[in-house]
Design a protein that fits this description.
The protein has 15 helices and two strands. By secondary structure, it is mainly α. Helix 12 packs antiparallel against helix 13.
Length: about 325
């Protein structure tokens, strides 16, 4: 996500009723919309299961660790923060694996939905229908937009880990045979992908209102398109429509539960809504999925630093009125 984001301190000030609605959405939002789609429903259940069990634990865990660290030194160093972040990531990886196994052994979701393999018509990178496919020397095909993404162009094949050269990204043309097949066999989804790409271009040009309209049209054609939801969330974010952006980012994370970008964008939105612990969860998840994400690493470092700094002056647990009991709205 671009670093050109709103930074006004007033951006995160929202009404009590708005915060109540956000809490409700974080706990149960959107599931009725997706209950007819098994994949979205399964991913929503997994995302929701993670969220409910993790947010409240972050503050307590950080408090106890910070108290121990502060008893050994008077000042908070970057090295201390890095060690703490590593501990958080290790703990999260173990818990997520344990919970996923628990869900697998239950009747809540179908694990085959969560681990759906990439089929012959799906881009291995974005996991949507190949649009304007480009076939590389290694024999694997990707969407043209995925290869040439302005933010993060591909450098390695997702399938075989072969390096993708600048020449391959910039000079290789579309595979006309695959293009003809996909456009003919998947007309509706192809149209939806075309609208999504047009919307992304509008997003790059900062034409946010037009972008939202284009991506809304794409979602009407392809309701499960995580890239359409994700980029619409970004457009709404830049327009400071944070609550609506949060819903779209959640949809993107549901439909693409292994997408680092979806978790990062959701974290950015939560920061602006003043939900720091929730944001930390999603930034850390982004880092677990893609350790090379320097932006997520910086956000995580900043949040952890701000959360534990007070413990070097006091060992009392921080009080928060942002985390209601499960019975509250």
């Amino acid at each position: 996500m671009s670093t050109d984001v709103p930074t006004s301190s007033s951006d995160s000030m929202i009404s009590r009723s708005s915060k109540s609605s956000i809490r409700s959405f974080l706990r149960s939002g959107g599931i009725k919309t997706y209950q007819n789609n098994s994949l979205l429903g399964a991913n929503f259940a997994f995302d929701l299961y993670q969220s409910q069990s993790k947010f409240s634990a972050f503050g307590t865990t950080l408090h106890h660790i910070a108290v121990k660290l502060s008893s050994q030194t008077d000042c908070l160093s970057p090295v201390t923060v890095d060690i703490l972040i590593d501990l958080i990531k290790d703990k999260m990886q173990g818990l997520l694996s344990k919970e996923k196994e628990s869900l697998t052994n239950s009747n809540l979701i179908n694990v085959e939905d969560l681990e759906a393999p990439v089929d012959d018509f799906m881009c291995p990178h974005c996991r949507e229908l190949l649009y304007k496919p480009v076939t590389l020397l290694c024999g694997h095909s990707f969407c043209q937009l995925c290869l040439k993404s302005p933010d993060r162009p591909m450098t390695v094949c997702n399938v075989c880990n072969v390096t993708i050269t600048e020449k391959q990204r910039t000079t290789y043309g579309n595979n006309v045979v695959l293009t003809a097949v996909f456009e003919s066999w998947h007309k509706v989804e192809w149209k939806g992908r075309a609208l999504t790409c047009e919307g992304i271009a509008l997003l790059q040009n900062r034409e946010y209102e037009k972008c939202i309209k284009k991506l809304t049209d794409a979602i009407e054609l392809v309701p499960q398109s995580h890239s359409a939801y994700l980029n619409r969330a970004k457009a709404k974010f830049f327009l400071k429509q944070y609550e609506s952006a949060l819903k779209d980012a959640t949809c993107a994370a549901i439909a693409a539960h292994k997408s680092p970008e979806a978790y990062f964008v959701k974290g950015e939105i939560l920061v602006h809504l003043d939900y720091t612990e929730e944001a930390l969860f999603y930034f850390t998840t982004c880092l677990i999925l893609d350790p090379s994400r320097e932006d997520a690493e910086k956000r995580t470092h900043d949040i952890v630093t701000n959360m534990i700094t007070p413990h070097y002056k006091s060992s009392s647990p921080p009080l928060s009125n942002k985390r209601p009991h499960s019975g509250q709205s």
